[in-house]
């Protein structure tokens, strides 16, 4: 597979998130986020680490921008830390925070790399969580103010905007299973958080459109290819439920303006949504977007008939606790996520069926492996290279089958702090030695650099 197998306009980039790379959590007026608080909860983070330093990107961003320029990427998806802009989640913007993202976006543009900014990649100001977080409707309004400030401050440098990253994770890992910050376990009420996140998306979209008329705005969902383990109607129902909770609960309101009734029923939340998810809300949530971002990593194979133990930990799928996630025996990455490139085409097709002309972008795809630095200081990550090649082939297949896929972003540019896994999972094309902060491109980075060069016309090569 060569780059020239993809359309010339196809965007190739890498992705990161503020909290996973920046560090400097107490500098230049940044406020506390829910993740800062969560890292202090005993047992919440697998290796007991914090992201106080992470990749020290806040100080080394210029080196990281140079790296991606050297590798030859077209675009870079990063996120803006809300607590750097509004330390308490409200009020006037913190100049130092704005200046950092202006330096970053400007540096990218100077290198010919298109900045793609995500407004919310999970780091809610703790002050807002203290007032109920995403379970409160007011948080969506606060998000609108923040979006307006950011677009005002960066709109001349950034054209491509993503409102939310993976609202499923924020709602159901944050408020149902409690595996992510803020670590709450409110059962099916986590769906209220999902609605408020989507409402926040709608408000932010409106603010961006008003402030930056030329902006291209989308949102990013994590979609899974879901299949039943067997032929029984019970397994088919399990698949309907998990597809519903992970995919349709988000795709339907954004792309069609309504919530899937069967999913609200599974959750036992029909009444709450009837009362609180108003027609005006849904009009905002389904206002036209310029593209949909899709994060794709793996598939779910599900069966019915599981009886959870009485003391089982809280589920990320409230109301569907009887569903069992089955291992098919297919190869997995270090996360335990099955490698299933065809599933990427499935989820793109599912989104496309609801909005046939809407451009789609893979805004994250990548793999964690236990990389080893060899005696020569090299990192020979053949498995990651194969994973990426297989998914780039799936991207080509998607395009060949007529899907409007416009680009593909690799998670991630550099190894980083992987949420509840801390530093114990590495997704980077570039290795980071956390003692010295030294960056070393892995074999996968060299492979991508070759892949990217293929499209450079001979006269410019
Ligand atoms: C996604 C997140 C991203 C990273 C990857 C591995 O769910 O958006 O921050 O953690 O998974």
TrEMBL record:
It comes from the Bacteria. NCBIfam families: BGL. This is Beta-glucosidase. It catalyses: Hydrolysis of terminal, non-reducing beta-D-glucosyl residues with release of beta-D-glucose. Gene3D superfamilies: Glycosidases (3.20.20.80). InterPro entries: GH (IPR017853), Glyco_hydro_1 (IPR001360), Glyco_hydro_1_AS (IPR018120), Glyco_hydro_1_beta-glucosidase (IPR017736). The active site is at 364 (nucleophile). It is an enzyme of class 3 (hydrolase). Its EC number is 3.2.1.21. Pfam families: Glyco_hydro_1. Keywords: Carbohydrate metabolism, Cellulose degradation, Glycosidase, Hydrolase, Polysaccharide degradation. One of its GO terms (molecular function) is beta-glucosidase activity. SUPFAM superfamilies: (Trans)glycosidases. Belongs to the glycosyl hydrolase 1 family. It comes from Leifsonia virtsii.
């Amino acid at each position: 597979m060569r780059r020239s197998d993809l359309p010339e306009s196809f965007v190739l980039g890498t992705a990161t998130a503020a909290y996973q790379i920046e560090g400097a959590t107490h500098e230049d007026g940044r406020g506390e986020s829910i993740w800062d608080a969560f890292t202090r909860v005993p047992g919440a983070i697998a290796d007991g680490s914090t992201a106080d330093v992470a990749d020290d990107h806040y100080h080394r961003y210029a080196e990281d921008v140079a790296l991606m320029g050297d590798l030859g990427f077209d675009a870079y998806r990063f996120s803006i830390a809300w607590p750097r802009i509004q330390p308490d989640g409200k009020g006037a913007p913190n100049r130092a925070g704005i200046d950092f993202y202006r330096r970053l976006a400007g540096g990218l543009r100077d290198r010919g790399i298109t900045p793609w900014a995500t407004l919310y990649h999970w780091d809610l100001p703790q002050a807002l969580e203290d007032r109920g977080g995403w379970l409160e409707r007011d948080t969506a309004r606060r998000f609108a103010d923040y979006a307006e400030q950011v677009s005002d401050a960066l709109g001349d440098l950034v054209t491509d905007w993503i409102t939310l990253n993976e609202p499923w994770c924020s709602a159901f890992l944050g408020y149902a299973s409690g595996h992510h910050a803020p670590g709450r376990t409110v059962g099916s009420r986590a769906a209220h958080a999902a609605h408020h996140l989507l409402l926040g998306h709608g408000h932010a979209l409106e603010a961006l459109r008003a402030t930056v008329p030329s902006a291209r705005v989308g949102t990013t969902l994590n979609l899974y290819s879901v299949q039943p383990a067997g032929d029984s109607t019970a397994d088919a129902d399990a698949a309907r439920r998990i597809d519903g909770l992970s995919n349709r609960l988000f795709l339907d309101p954004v792309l069609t303006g309504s919530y899937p009734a069967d999913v609200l029923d599974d959750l036992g939340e029909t009444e709450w949504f009837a009362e609180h998810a108003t027609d005006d809300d849904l009009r905002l949530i389904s206002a036209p977007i310029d593209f949909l971002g899709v994060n794709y990593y793996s598939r779910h194979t599900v069966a019915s008939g599981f009886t959870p133990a009485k003391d089982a930990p809280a589920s990320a799928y409230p109301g569907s606790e009887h569903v069992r996630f089955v291992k098919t025996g297919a190869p997995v990455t270090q996360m335990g996520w099955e490698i299933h490139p065809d599933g990427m085409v499935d989820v793109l097709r599912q989104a496309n069926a609801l909005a046939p002309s809407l451009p789609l972008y893979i805004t994250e795809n990548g793999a964690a492996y236990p990389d080893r630095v060899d005696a020569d200081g090299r990192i020979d990550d053949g498995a990651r290279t194969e994973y990426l090649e297989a998914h780039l082939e799936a991207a080509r297949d998607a395009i060949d089958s007529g899907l409007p896929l416009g680009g593909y972003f690799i998670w991630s540019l550099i190894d980083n702090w992987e949420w509840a896994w801390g530093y114990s999972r590495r997704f980077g094309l570039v290795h980071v030695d956390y003692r010295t902060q030294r960056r070393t491109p892995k074999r996968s980075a060299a492979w991508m650099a070759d892949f990217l060069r293929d499209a450079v016309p001979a006269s410019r090569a």
